[in-house]
């Protein structure tokens, strides 16, 4: 069955960095664009970034542009999100899914990112 396992979250001070990973299984990874989302309590899940099937096309939500970098390793069926210059407003649970801004399958457990001094 399709599975997404997000990891790499944690507690970091403002200005710090984290690298999130998304290990995908159960489908043909290279056939899909992939996306990162985030969600805070009481709010809708929002799209953070998406990447094309071969990694050549990348798109970011405006608040993270210039600070976050999305990438993928198709040989490892894994996607990444390098997050630099983190701000308290980046605090959220981060999720990944197949598709470009519209999730294809059920969600994984997510990984918590907390930016606080």
Task: Please outline the helices and strands.
Blueprint: E1 3-7, E2 10-12, E3 18-25, E4 34-39, E5 46-51, E6 58-60, E7 68-73, E8 78-83, E9 92-98, E10 111-115
Query: Multimeric state of these chains?
Result: single chain
- Give the overall form: globular
Structural class from helices and strands? mainly beta
Low-confidence stretches: none
Separation, N- and C-terminal Cα atoms: 40 Å
Number of helices: 0
Strand tally, please? 10
Q: Provide the helix percentage.
A: under 10%
Strand order, main sheet: write it out.
2-10-9-4-5-6
Radius of gyration: 13 Å
User: What proportion of the residues form beta strands (DSSP E)?
Assistant: over 45%
Characterize the largest beta sheet: strand count, sense, and whether it forms a barrel: 6 strands, mixed
The average pLDDT score comes to: 97
Compressed to H and E, one letter per element, the order equals EEEEEEEEEE
Structure commentary:
The chain is an all-beta fold. It is 0% helix and 47% strand. It has no helices and 10 strands. Strands 2-10-9-4-5-6 form a 6-stranded mixed β-sheet, with no helix packed on it. Strands 1-3-8-7 form a 4-stranded antiparallel β-sheet, with no helix packed on it. A hairpin with a 4-residue loop joins strand 7 and strand 8. The chain starts with a strand and ends with a strand. The model has no long low-confidence stretch (mean pLDDT 97).
């Amino acid at each position: 069955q399709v599975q997404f396992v997000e990891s790499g979250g944690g507690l970091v001070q403002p200005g710090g960095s984290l690298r999130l990973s998304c290990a995908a299984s159960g489908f043909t990874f290279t056939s899909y664009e992939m996306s990162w989302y985030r969600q805070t309590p009481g709010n809708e899940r929002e799209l953070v970034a998406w990447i094309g099937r071969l990694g050549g096309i990348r798109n970011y939500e405006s608040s993270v542009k210039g600070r976050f970098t999305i990438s993928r390793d198709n040989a490892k069926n894994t996607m990444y999100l390098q997050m630099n210059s983190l701000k308290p407003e980046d605090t959220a649970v981060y999720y990944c899914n197949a598709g470009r801004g519209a999730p294809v399958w059920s969600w994984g457990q997510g990984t918590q990112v907390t930016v606080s001094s």
